[in-house]
């Protein structure tokens, strides 16, 4: 298996490489790249490989910038400490999404997924990635409502009507633009995957609809403080690490 690793942290790259060699004895590391600029230059002239493992946040940008410039000729496994990039990852030839710190088990599952796809699609896993991406986009467009329980009633809540999702006392709630709140039987991670590109997970407790945001201002601690169009008693802020991703998402 011919592999490329895109990772700017030496220890993480070494750990990933040793894990892959341990789990896949025939693995050959063709290149280890450390930034967007280097990777774009490399892929313009590179021979095809089987699989790419890529961090998302690099020193000079996000790895998505690489694949927007030079579409890869192999599926990409995105490895990151953040889960808010998942939807975007699967729009950029993403075969899998592995959260750091990764384990032998998580990497093994990724390799098994890769082997199954190669077998199912006659050794062209990238075709399968395109298929998964397209079907995911169709599902995102066709998912229109969320069913919630309210007392003894079953209520369909339109996805577009959801202003935010939040955690309170280990329970997950949705709040509509009209201020109605419903307890839901889903985790915030499940909601993050369900809601689609108009929503952004700004922190561990909140997912916001772009249409619910009135404005943001910079606080004293260099965090962005979000002001909503709907009444919400909890102060919502974004750390500086998520600042650029949030601004890009806010621009649509």
TrEMBL record:
Gene3D superfamilies linked to this entry: 3.40.50.2300, LytTr DNA-binding domain
Domain HTH LytTR-type intervals: 146-213
Domain of life: Bacteria
Boundaries of every Response regulatory domain copy: 2-115
Keywords for this protein: Phosphoprotein
Record-listed 4-aspartylphosphate modification sites: 55
Pfam families: LytTR, Response_reg
GO MF entry, a single one: DNA binding
PANTHER family for this protein: STAGE 0 SPORULATION PROTEIN A HOMOLOG (PTHR37299:SF1), TRANSCRIPTIONAL REGULATOR-RELATED (PTHR37299)
Protein name: Response regulator transcription factor
Annotated organism of origin: Sphingobacterium phlebotomi
């Amino acid at each position: 298996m011919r592999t490329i690793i895109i990772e700017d942290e030496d220890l993480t790259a070494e750990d990933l490489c040793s894990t892959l060699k341990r789990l896949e004895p025939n693995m050959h590391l063709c290149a280890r790249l450390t930034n967007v600029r280097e990777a774009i230059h490399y892929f313009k002239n590179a021979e095809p490989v089987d699989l790419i493992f890529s961090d998302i946040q690099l020193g000079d940008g996000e790895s998505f910038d690489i694949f927007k410039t030079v579409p890869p000729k192999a599926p990409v496994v995105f490895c990151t400490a953040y889960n808010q990039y998942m939807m975007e990852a699967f729009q950029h030839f993403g075969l899998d999404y592995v959260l750091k710190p990764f384990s032998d088990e998580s990497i093994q599952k990724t390799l098994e997924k890769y082997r199954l796809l190669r077998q199912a699609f006659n050794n062209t896993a990238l075709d399968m990635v395109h298929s998964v991406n397209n079907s995911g986009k169709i599902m995102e467009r066709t998912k229109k409502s969320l069913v919630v329980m309210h007392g003894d009633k079953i209520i369909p809540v339109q996805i577009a009507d959801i202003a935010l999702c939040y955690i309170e006392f280990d329970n997950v709630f949705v709040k509509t633009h009209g201020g109605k709140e419903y307890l839901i039987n889903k985790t915030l991670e499940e909601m993050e995957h369900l809601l689609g590109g108009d929503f952004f997970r700004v922190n561990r407790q909140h997912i916001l609809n772009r249409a619910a945001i009135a404005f943001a201002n910079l606080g004293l601690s260099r965090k962005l403080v979000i002001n909503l169009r709907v009444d919400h008693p909890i102060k919502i802020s974004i750390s500086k690490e998520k600042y650029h991703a949030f601004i890009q998402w806010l621009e649509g």
